[in-house]
Hints:
Layout (H helix, E strand, L loop, with lengths): L10 H12 L25 E8 L5 H10 L4 E4 L9 H4 L4 H5 L5 E6 L19 E6 L18 H11 L6 H14 L3 E2 L9 H14 L6 H4 L5 H4 L11 H5 L4 E4 L1 E2 L9 H11 L4 E4 L2 E10 L5 E10 L21 E11 L2 H11 L2 E2 L1 H6 L6 E2 L5 E3 L3 E9 L17 H7 L14 E5 L10 E6 L10 H6 L4 E8 L7 E4 L10 E3 L10 H23 L8 E5 L7 H11 L30 E2 L1 E3 L14 H26 L1
Parallel strand pairs: 1-2, 1-11, 2-8, 10-22, 11-23, 12-13
Antiparallel strand pairs: 3-4, 5-7, 6-16, 9-10, 10-11, 14-19, 15-18, 15-21, 16-17, 17-18, 19-20
Helix pairs in contact: 2-11, 2-18, 6-18, 7-16, 16-17
Amino acid sequence: MPxxxxxxxxxxxxxxxxxxxxxxxxxxxSSLAISKSRSITTAVEPxxxxxxxxxxxxxxxxxxxxxxxKAGYSVLLLEAGAMxxxxxxxxxxxxxxxxxEDPTMNWNFYVKHYSDPKLHGRRFVKSQQGMLYPRAxxxxxxxxxxxxxxxxxxxxxxxNIAQLTGDKSWQSYPMRQYFDRVKQWLPIEQASxxxxxxxxxxxxxxxxxxxxxxxxxxxxxxxANLNNPAMALRSRFSLNPNDWDNVSAQAEGLFMxxxxxxxxxxxxxxxxxxxxxxxxxxxxxxxxxxxxQKILFKPSKTGQLQATGVxxxxxxxxxxxxPLAATSSTxxxxxxxxxxxxxxxxAAGAFNSPQLLQLSGIGPKALLKQHRIPVLAxxxxxxxxxxxxxxxxxxxxxxxxxxxxxxxxxxAPNDPCMQEYQQQQPFKTYGTNGILAGIKKRHTAGGKxxxxxxxxxxxxxxxxxxxxxxxxxxxxxxxxxxxxxxHTRNRSGYVRIRxxxxxxxxxxxxxxxxxxxxxxxxxxxxxxxxxFVRTIxxxxxxxxxxxxxxxxEIVPGPDIDTKTEMDAFIKKxxxxxxxxCSNKMGHLSDPKAVVDNQFKVIxxxxxxxxxxxxxxxxxxxxxxxxIYMIAEKASDDIxxxxxxxxxxxx
Length: 650
């Protein structure tokens, strides 16, 4: 147990002083170092005791594990996947689609969008009875394959939680401190607009987007320089969507997208974990290829369930969503147990966290009885309320390749773009995620908060389906505008176990649009987004720069033009990749609430959930930064309770 926190050298005291002193003074550059001297996997001895056990090394679990270890507690961090330490798909920002389909570090879930299979579109995989939904299974979780977009959520996302729980610490102003804390260890960069000068057609498209989305006068100097792309692109791309003033003003408009990179390399929780292991080798233990089967409980003195540890097995490719599971010859070790003196923190994500609770006997009573799992706590909300974004694409094919991608082979031998990347050339093609500019936009039926996010890049991406990464980069003549509808109103999705088998993925159904709820609001917004993107493309064709490389829309295509046709297209073609809200936070009086305002699973002791599943409604436009922020907040809650407990028992 750590010493009295008021002693000068106490790690818990240093933790709180660091938070008070550092504020937003920048990132800790040492956290970017990757340990080369220490193995990423430490063998866990059976029946070992730790202060805390954290399940999942992604955006939620890793910061919690790191903060607890830095505060002087022993932490076991369990990750079901492995890690390829020199994987270029992970490292290079432009390879993020390849990372999402990399079999060495991903799980392929197949989900339903509707209760009626006939409503699914052409990407429905009959053999799997679902739509492909890639998740990462590696150190870093989904921070290892996402597109690195790091956008601050809306203030109302936090204020709504504060109102729901009655906890003022969730209000938007106090929550801002956690963004400042994230920036201490996570670098956030914005691509330079000058990279657009490598490609006249690309710069024309972005200029057209600026003209079409202009609401603040930022594009006036573009209009004066339509024949000069260099001058046009000096059009005040200074809007930072993460600035407090812009967030508070609910600003809409065009901006260069913030991304979690450092010197043109991906950064996420992986580097943070490895750096902490190097600094605190006796405090943070990382066990990879560890599939947790269930949380262990015993009755407490108060009559509630008390988490005591976890049961897990170690082995390669154990989970059936792993694309290599069917061909793996590795037999998992026998189940073993690790014990937590203080708490178990579940951070396995919106699919696997509710699955783990249900396998452990916490969930809807009828579901658990159906699969002959002893009901330890009847929590009807476990696995319910599943939510996601709604996204569709407008794809155009151009007559000639985009210059920015000309000759790029995405890692094949003698790739000139790889040589440029390795030679530290300025404005390197592979140094960004390829999504250079984005537009926040309100829609006519919405409120003051922009709920549409429109972003584009030179690729062909129509949604997730087997082979999507290769298709996206195969031909450099395509450009995709993605339309993302945030703050969706769908609350009827669910995650439900299929059996007692912890290796079997659960049944997942998002129940899009009118499947169990009124989906016209979201549908109307997405349709407006398609119309807006078409206006951008038309304006780009009208600009007077001299070139003959014109684009033709192939998705949805010119034949889909009426309201009825566009709505049908959206319902068939929509996808998402921000699964959340399946263990929602709520007031203790809410029978569907799973966790309270301090992340504790209601009806239990010593177990919390810290991941995307705890949001009552899906926050922001991109979910990773809100998860980082709640991880920092949860760390404070956990450490505060540890200190108070130790004061009582000392």
